[in-house]
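User: Run a structure prediction on this.
Assistant: Running it now.
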Amino acid sequence: MVKWCMDALLNEYITYLVVDRNRSAATVEAYQRDLRHFMQATACSDPDSLSRITPQRIMEYINQIKADGASASSAARRLASIKGLYKFLLAEEQLSVNPAQTVRAPRLWRRLPGALSLEEVDRLLAAPDLTTPEGVRDCAMLETLYATGLRVSELVSLTLSSVNMEAGFVATVGKGSKTRVIPFGERARLKIAEYKAAARPGFLKGRSSDFLFITRLGGPMTRQGFWKIVRRTAKIAGIWKKLSPHSLRHSFATHLLERGADLRSVQSMLGHSDISTTQIYTHVAESRLKRIFERIHPRGK
């Protein structure tokens, strides 16, 4: 058996993620970056040195990057990338041991992401200036995101044909190239229709584009561009908490569960392949059940 050098090892693993696991470009890039940092921090240069790493050393590495300022989700992703690499090398018979197998993420990593209150959502969605084409577009994008719970990458990738205005749903291709259909309400439909009629043609200036949401230069909106829109709109709305496009996705899930949606339905709409991912919202559903119990049960209070 030929032992791979470190560059060949990483190349083989990246190819496996793309071809066999069908991971997105963003995920692959993040994993590659994470693994190079891990190997540099632990002085690993080949599979043999990786096999000498202990579970304790992996945990020390994760704790160190958290101490250096990495967020809980970033630390969890780095651990996932390390686990994935070891599992791959074991299957390829490049290693005979898997020190990452017994390393577990602390429960505190599985905390509910921050969500906006209903009042904050109302302020955010009312903040864009509807007297400008950019404001009409921004309002439509924010309404669509909150109405569907799309990932920001899915939102900016929407095409004209992927949005059914009559039936009120969007079709999107999420992680793992899985297509899902998500309904949206009348308010989002009206804002999208207003944008398509009053703002989008002016951005295109006679040109054509399959993308639904575009910039004033006629090109497709980017994730970074929309991120800036969310931050700018939040300031206008007087919302000073740390906010990102993902905050509206979390708000979408939280508000659905608070009003009676079941976890499986929310899982389907969010595009989570594993229900355990959606279970970060479990305490929302539990709080709702407790309120129902206290209101209805004869001895609830």
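The beta strands are 163-164, 169-173, 179-183.
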